[in-house]
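PROTEIN DESIGN WORKSHEET
SECTION A - STRUCTURE
LENGTH: 120
TOKENS:
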């Protein structure tokens, strides 16, 4: 098994989590927004946590299940970004940047989940 720092999804999901944490800090401190930002914090950091768990899975099914949870969390994060931009809490520029990264994670996770369960 590759080390986490060699694993694309592990690295990208951790980088995404850090960006979500920084966005949360900005929203709470600068915009005084506490509800949607907290939801994004939870879903955005959960992606990497589930990927990390999956990489240490006890079986192929366990791996696939955790990756599927990470995929669901990424889809949820996408929803919170939509709400934050549509309610003017984040700029269109920040939205596009974060959404691009989120969609990239969704593509990778979708591929992992499909290949895991199609080769069972």
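SECTION B - SEQUENCE
RESIDUE ASSIGNMENT:
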């Amino acid at each position: 098994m590759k080390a986490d720092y060699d694993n694309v999804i592990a690295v990208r999901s951790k980088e995404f989590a850090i960006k979500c944490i920084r966005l949360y800090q900005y929203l709470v401190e600068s915009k005084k927004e506490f509800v949607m930002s907290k939801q994004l914090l939870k879903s955005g950091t959960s992606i990497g946590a589930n990927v990390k768990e999956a990489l240490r899975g006890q079986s192929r099914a366990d791996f696939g299940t955790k990756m599927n949870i990470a995929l669901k969390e990424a889809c949820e994060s996408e929803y919170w970004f939509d709400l934050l931009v549509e309610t003017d809490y984040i700029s269109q520029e920040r939205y596009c940047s974060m959404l691009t990264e989120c969609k990239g994670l969704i593509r990778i996770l979708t591929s992992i989940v499909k290949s895991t369960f199609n080769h069972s």
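SECTION C - NOTES
The chain has a mean pLDDT of 95.
Helices lie at 8-30, 35-55, 60-86, 92-118.
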